Amino acid sequence: MLSGYHHVEMHPSYWKYLGFQFEGAYYSFRSLPFGFPMAPFVFTQLIKQLAKRWRASGLRVVPYVDDLLFLCNSQTHARSACAVVTQDLKAAGFVINRKKIASPPHSPI
Questions:
Q1: Torsion sign (Cα): 56, 109, 100, 83
Q2: Residue-wise over 38-50: b if at least 16 C-beta within 10 A, else e?
Q3: Is residue 67 part of a domain?
Q4: Is residue 109 a part of any domain in this protein?
Q5: Shortest CA distance to 59 belongs to which of 67, 71, 48, 49?
Q6: pLDDT at 99 over 80
Q7: From its phi and psi, is residue 32 left (phi > 0), alpha (psi between -120 and 50) or beta?
C-alpha cells in the first residue's frame, strides 16, 4: 500500500485534535496521521478485518503494519492471491504501491 495510514479517513469531529500550527496558520489532518501514537493500532485493526476475509478464503497472510506477506505453494497460487488482494485493497479505498509487489513471486522461503 502507498502511505497506508493516509487512506484512513478520520471523523470531522477529530480533525481539531490532529492539527498543527506552522507560520501562523493552522493545519489539520483529515486522515490518520503517520506520527499519531495510536495510528499503528488503528491501521492494524482495519487490516486485520481484510486479513480475516483472506484467511477465510484459504489465503495464508502475515500482515505487518502496511505490508502484507502471502504464503503460497505455487507461482500460480501467488498470482491469484495477488489479484484478489489487490482488488480487495482497491475496493477498500487503498492505493497500491506497485514497487512493493514482488512480481513474479520470489523464491521459496
A1: negative
A2: ebeeebeebbeeb
A3: yes
A4: no
A5: 71
A6: no
A7: beta
CA-based nearest residue to 87, from 50, 61, 43, 55: 50
Number of domains into which the chain is organized: 1
Helix (H, G, I), strand (E, B) or coil at 63: strand
CATH number at residue 96: 3.30.70.270
The model's pLDDT over 44-57, given as tens digits with 9 standing for 90+, comes to: 888 888 999 999 99
Whether 72 maps to a domain, the answer reads: yes
Query: What is the domain extent for residue 72?
Result: 4-100
Q: Is the pLDDT of residue 73 over 70?
A: yes
Q: 504464503: which residue's cell?
A: 71
φ, ψ dihedrals at 107, nearest 5°: -65, 160
